[in-house]
Amino acid sequence: TADIETHTYDVVIIGAGGAGLRAAIEARVSGKKTAIISKSLFGKAHTVMAEGGCAAAMGNANSNDNWMVHFGDTMRGGKFLNNWRMAELHAKEAPDRVWELETYGALFDRTADGRISQRNFGGHSYPRLAHVGDRTGLELIRTLQQKIVSLQQEDFRNTGDYEANIKVYDETTIVDLLKDGDKISGAVAYQRESGRHLLFEAPAIVMATGGIGKSYKVTSNSWEYTGDGHALALRAGASLINMEFLQFHPTGMVWPPSVKGILVTESVRGDGGILTNSEGKRFMFDYIADVFKDLYATTPEEGDRWYTDPDNNRRPPELLPRDEVARAINSEVKAGRGTPHGGVYLTVAGRTEVGLTTEAILKKLPSMHHQFKELADVDITKEAMEVGPTCHYVMGGIEVDPDTGAASVPGLFAAGECSGGMHGSNRLGGNSLSDLLVFGKRAGAGAAEYVDKLGKDRPVVSDAAVKEARDRSVAPFGDGGQEGAENPYTIHQELQQSMNDLVGIIRKAEEVEEAQGKIDELRERAKHMVVEGHRQFNPGWHLALDLRNMLLVSECVAKAALIRTESRGGHTREDHPVMNAEWRHKLLVCNIKDDGSVDVQEKEQIPLREDLLDLFEMSELKKYFTEAELAGRNS
Ligand code: FAD
Questions:
Q1: pLDDT means per 10 residues in the chain (635 residues)?
Q2: d(CA 97, ligand 1 centre) in Å
Q3: pTM of this prediction?
Q4: Locate the Fumarate reductase/succinate dehydrogenase flavoprotein-like C-terminal domain: which residues (predicted)?
Q5: How close are the terminal C-alpha atoms of the chain, in Å?
Q6: Distance from the CA of 417 to the center of ligand 1, in angstroms?
Q7: Angle CA 438–142–71, to nearest 5
Q8: Atom of ligand 1 nearest to the CA of 53
Q9: Half-sphere exposure of residue 237: CA atoms within 13 angstroms, side-chain side
Q10: Which residues 6+ apart lie within 8 Å of 25 measured at CB?
Q11: Is the distance from the beta carbon of residue 624 to the nearest atom of ligand 1 less than 6 Å?
């Protein structure tokens, strides 16, 4: 392939968020020549936006905490649909990954006696989130980047070339993965600045591309979360699981319209913020589901006491898992008890009884104070915030081997938000940053080991496949002025509106079917998309390429959402409102068919290991498992 700039690596990491950077570090320290590819500027991944913190059962704030409690909370949060092996590895390894970050130079907030401080978050039994104010993701990214720079300095000392063993290609977007037979052989990219294509030859690729939120109109996600990794992997023959489960964060900004969807961190509630409706009622007490009844306070007084005396009181229901809180807010607004702009109130002002003085608010939630002041002209130390659900996180993703991050395609690995399984039907806040570190490291190691095993027998890139990928990616330029030409922005808007309205927080069969029809229509229309201008910095062109991914991923979400006839975590069916134990042990697996459409099949989950089942009371298991699954256990 003489006419395309070509780079050869052992391991190519697609994505420079927490998962990608941690994977890259691991691949490089395992002796592999590693590239990091990032669609956005280096440092501007989703991870940088993470506010609340990174969950790890270090037991600093409450010595009762340990990996088993964290594991239990994670499984409970995911309504026991989680891949239990991932949840186990995550709970066991998260503390070490946080400590390791400090060895790279991170500095988390401290307790009075100098240990890493931990804060409360929804669904976590104890204060568990290691944090840096409400800017934790920034510290995480900064530190991982610093580690990469230090590895490059080491390489410079040894070879005279900073980029000898680890190089970053930012503003570079992967458009297709390449295979030799059934094995990964490389990937084709374009660069934003030049619009030129690049070829990466590599036997191992780690997907770390993050989420899919840009398929929805109201989202906390930024422009690059178009499900590229999900779609690239699917098209390369890998399977996706759990795509029906999307997390609608309960608290996004609802006003002004230009910022609708921007996240209001859960720390606001973790630190003592309360939710009220237009009648001034703390309504969450009316929404404690049966499965959570014994775990949450039943009066505001008890809930408030919990902040200072957690051992003798139960937590307030504002800290229920996110799916529960988001549905409750949705119901309040629908019942006509919403705020003027269609949300509910979230208040930290005046909550001095739980320690939220003005000074404490400014210290604990500086970004939230700044965000509301700048964007909505609201001073959160004096006034309530107006908030409502926003599409935030995708639980579904590439199906991987828990220990190595290997996808079903040899040479393909995945970690972080683009992988599936770890969080089951609903992710607990704080469990993503820890997921990135734990599974980023594992996927980097998995990829390195795979390359070692391949030895000299490396897959080869085919010229024809490169040409096909390139031709496909420039097709939207067409020859201009065609009749019936479609505009990518219009198609995107229509897709976002349909997904929001028809496959959103509450779903029903007719609407999901309508969405499927709309996706089919948009896919046809997308074949006639035409973009204008040059290839350099051309956002219309980029959107046209992103849409190919968004449409495919949306098809997965809609198809899986129609098949799962129950309500669980981030999938609520108005026409099937009950959680059904028969569905708990089933996964919906998406694959691509020869005609490019998505096929969804049911698959049995691997049963939870006995010693892990023993961590739960029988009375709790009965709420989630079928009788047959629990047969033979002591009640
Ligand atoms: P990302 O950080 O999303 O990075 C993806 C990378 O892939 C980017 O570099 C992107 O440019 C690149 N990429 C995408 N497509 C391509 C392509 N085609 N080619 C090349 N590169 C590509 N979680 C917590 O645990 N705690 C929190 O407090 C928290 N707060 C959050 C606050 C906000 C506002 C948001 C939006 C999320 C928050 N989350 C939090 C969730 C968490 O931040 C994300 O789930 C996590 O950062 C995802 O990390 P990642 O490494 O998987 O991907």
A1: 87 98 98 97 91 94 96 97 98 98 96 93 93 92 97 98 98 98 98 96 98 95 94 98 96 92 92 96 95 91 93 93 90 93 95 94 93 95 95 97 98 98 96 98 98 94 96 86 84 96 94 98 95 93 97 98 97 95 97 96 96 96 95 79
A2: 18
A3: 0.94
A4: 492-602
A5: 65
A6: 7
A7: 25
A8: 28
A9: 14
A10: 144, 147, 148, 151, 441, 444
A11: no
Mutation probe of ligand 1 site: the residue of 21, 230, 432, 542 with most atoms within 8 A of C-beta = 432
Measured in angstroms, how far is the CA atom of residue 352 from the centroid of ligand 1? 34
Asked if 45 contacts 122 with a C-beta cutoff of 8 angstroms, the reply is no
The response to whether residue 275 sits with its C-beta less than 6 Å from ligand 1 reads no
Beta strands in 18-147, from DSSP E residues, in sequence order:
34-37, 54-55, 118-119, 129-130
Question: Rounded to 5 degrees, what are φ and ψ at 627?
Answer: -60, -40
Tokens of residue 316, six digits: 């307030």
The ligand 1 atom nearest the CA atom of 225: 14
Query: 34-37 and 166-169: which strand pairing?
Result: parallel
- Establish whether this prediction's ipTM goes over 0.85: yes
Contact between 213 and 554 (Cβ < 8 Å) = no
Ligand 1 centroid from CA 15, angstroms = 9
Rg (CA), the chain: 24
Nearest-atom number in ligand 1 for the CA of 55 is 25
- Cite the active site residues: 249, 269
Q: What residues have CB less than 8 Å from 386, skipping those under 6 apart?
A: 253, 254, 255, 339, 340, 341, 343, 344, 345, 346, 376
**Which tokens go with 80?**
């026991």
360 burial type by CB count under 10 A (0-12 exposed, 13-18 middle, 19+ buried): middle
